[in-house]
Amino acid sequence: MTERFYRRIQIGYRIFWVALLAALTAFELAPFWADLRSLARVLPHPYASTDAYLEGTIGTANGSYRWLDMLRRIPPTGAIVFFCPKGNVRADLIYGTINYLGWPRALEKQEIDPPGPGVKPPTFNRAATAAVIFCMVKPPPGAPPSWELGADVVVIPIAAPP
Amino acid sequence: MTQTIQVIAALLTILAAGTGVTTLLIGRSERVGLTELAALSWLLGTAVVSLSLWCIGLIVHGAALHGAVTSICIALGIAAYVRRPRKGELVRTAGPNNIWTTVLVALLCLVWLVVFWRSLQQALGWDGLLVWELKARYAYLNGGALPQSYFVDASRAYSHPEYPLFLPLVETWLYFWLGECNQFWAKIVAPLFFAAGLILLTRATSKLCGKRWLGLLLTLIFALLPFLRSRLGGVVVGYADVPLSILYAAAVYYLLVFIEANSAAALKLFVTLVSLLPWLKREGAVLWLVAGCCGAIVIGRRKRLPTALLALLPGLAVILSWKIFLSCMQAPPPRDFAPISIAVIISNVHRVAPILESLAVELLRVDRWSVFWCAAAIALINLIARYRDEGARLLLIFVIAPVGLYCGTYLFSAWEEYRLHIVTSLPRLLLHVAPVALLSIALTLRQRGRQSELPVSSD
Q1: Quick one: residue B436, left, alpha or beta (phi over 0 = left, psi -120 to 50 = alpha)?
Q2: B221, A28: Cβ pair inside 8 Å?
Q3: Which residues make Cβ contacts (< 8 Å) with residue B176, sequence separation at least 6?
Q4: By C-alpha distance, which of B159, B139, B132, B160 is closest to A95?
Q5: Does the beta carbon of B126 lie under 8 angstroms from any beta carbon of chain A?
Q6: What gap in Å lies between CA B134 and CA B310, rounded to an integer?
Q7: How crowded is residue B242: how many other Cβ atoms within 10 Å of its Cβ?
């Protein structure tokens, strides 16, 4: 009697675990199937990730090469100032990506308040600055000619002093 | 095509170094199967390469550094060849022995291939790029070692300069062979850790539950977890969490082997693997503390006290060396946490309920974890019932203690919105203990009274 009872418990225990593992697998199969169906051809590219981020944030294809090309044309000495709205996640993503690519130069981030009464337009020390980047911020009127890196991002090189 | 050959060369040097270290640790008296040797070679080879790049990179840079580390890898590879098993001693990993194991092995390979391909297809995750790959890139551009200017660069403080360099320097190693920084090839590192993890998990679960097909099934179920393929911290994003969880599970497994078989090889593997945890990620120090202390107690019972204390020494050396290095580089202290003090605990005690609530919500997220944590919870309850079994007791501690300590750290979170800190990091922290939780499920499914088959040599 006792042996039969324990045997039943043992069978019940096994059935319980089979059901649990089946449930575990059942929940996993749908997302795996979705992943399996989304497989596509991949092309090796040295800037695969930064390009993806720049395309996602500012809509620029080959954004990494484009930014690196601009960086080469910016005067080699002086700061690069990056103006962006305060507490904006998209601006943080753009800043993180182009600052990453900009090594060994550093981008000096200056977060500014949204335009409104009493809010001063962005200012910078022209003599010590090589370039200014306006990200989701309008450049001040009368600013020198700029290069467009992507949607809402313009780069203004400051001519090197003679 | 040329790049593929260069990457294969980089991987072969890693495997040569790893095979050398594994062979030296195991010695001639004990043997491992070929797949287990390959998995251990990857884990230990990446450690050798990253530690060598870091240490030698303090003295030389560029081609000299590349040459020096390549020489170490080749020397270790030669050592492995010299100490190879003689004819007749070779251990072959038993292949699939029936249709079910064949199907399960094939499915496991399919899952790994899908994860591998998805990794290549997707961009590195935000932290994968700006915390881990960033260091690899800057180190490569500086001749293989991160310059002091990086550690004090306030504009790049978001990249956590204080994080250890295991993963970044493995990526730097690929760049040395490629001759350029390449975000595409950097993405192969995490899937290779995943492959090593699946091999070791299959072995560990098979031994713990006593049935090969069940071990394969459990590993397959684990590999299918949606979180492992998610953008939050899975294999595809290239974070350090997957490699950390695998190292931790491997260390735990070899400690269990040591307990069962009193194997010297398993003890050496445990000490080596557990010491590497703090070198992989800052949270690795927490895992080292838990596994290291429990391991020292276990070793102390079987060997002499000095042996137990010696087992803690390599991990302690890694932690202290990294601290000293950071202080020499004048790296700013981490900003995510406030200094530990009673006053902070008292002022943040109100966070306990939200932390526990977030933990419960995360554990029950079917879209990320399926019902894995429910199964793990049932297994852990079962292990409590078997508390007199030392292996069961340890598995219980190895799952619960790190989670408790991780949750405790949120009391010191310096984030303005500490709930956001929990939401963004807790799923990845749970991943660290998930493979060990799988081992507890495997142990639960072992038939009572069944003899253990844990020795390293019994393949």
Answers
A1: alpha
A2: yes
A3: B10, B66, B140, B144
A4: B159
A5: yes
A6: 35
A7: 27
Q: Which residue has the tokens 């403080």?
A: B157
What are the tens digits of pLDDT across the range B1-37? 789 999 999 999 999 999 999 999 988 767 788 899 9
Question: Residue A131 belongs to what H/E stretch?
Answer: strand A129-135
Model pLDDT for residues B274-314, shown as the tens digit of each residue: 999 999 999 999 999 999 999 999 999 888 888 888 999 99
ipTM: 0.89
Q: Which two tokens stand for residue B220?
A: 């397959």
* Among B273, B250, B199, B215, residue whose Cα is nearest residue B436: B250
User: What distance in Å separates the CA atoms of residue A111 and residue B197, rounded to the nearest whole number?
Assistant: 44
- Which of helix, strand or coil describes residue A111? strand
Q: What is the DSSP string of B310-348?
A: HHHHHHHHHHHHHHHHHHHTTPPPPSSBPPP-HHHHHHT
Check: CB of residue B128 under 8 Å from CB of residue B122.
no
In chain B, whose CA is at the least distance from the CA of A93? B126
Closest CA of chain A from B24, distance in Å = 37
The minimum CA-CA distance between A63 and chain B, rounded to whole Å, is 14
**Tokens at B338, concatenated:** 């406030």
Q: How far is CA B437 from CA B38, B286, B362, B381, B399, in A?
A: 24, 17, 15, 12, 6
Cβ proximity of B26 and B265 under 8 Å: yes
Low-confidence ranges of chain B (pLDDT < 70): 29, 85-96, 387, 447-459
CB contact under 8 A, B371 and A20: yes
The two tokens of residue B59 are 């003295």
Give the C-alpha separation, B380 to B222, whole Å.
Answer: 17
Distance between CA B384 and CA B389 in Å, rounded? Answer: 9
Q: Which residue has the tokens 């497994």?
A: B253
> Strands A129-135 and A147-150, how do they pair?
unpaired
* Contact (CB<8Å) A35/B121: no
Q: Is B265:B30 a contact under the CB 8 Å cutoff? A: yes
Strand partners, A134: A83, A154
- Angle of helix B212-223 relative to helix A2-37, nearest 10 degrees, comes to 40
Angle in degrees, 0-180, between the axes of helices B418-444 and B372-385, rounded to the nearest 10: 60
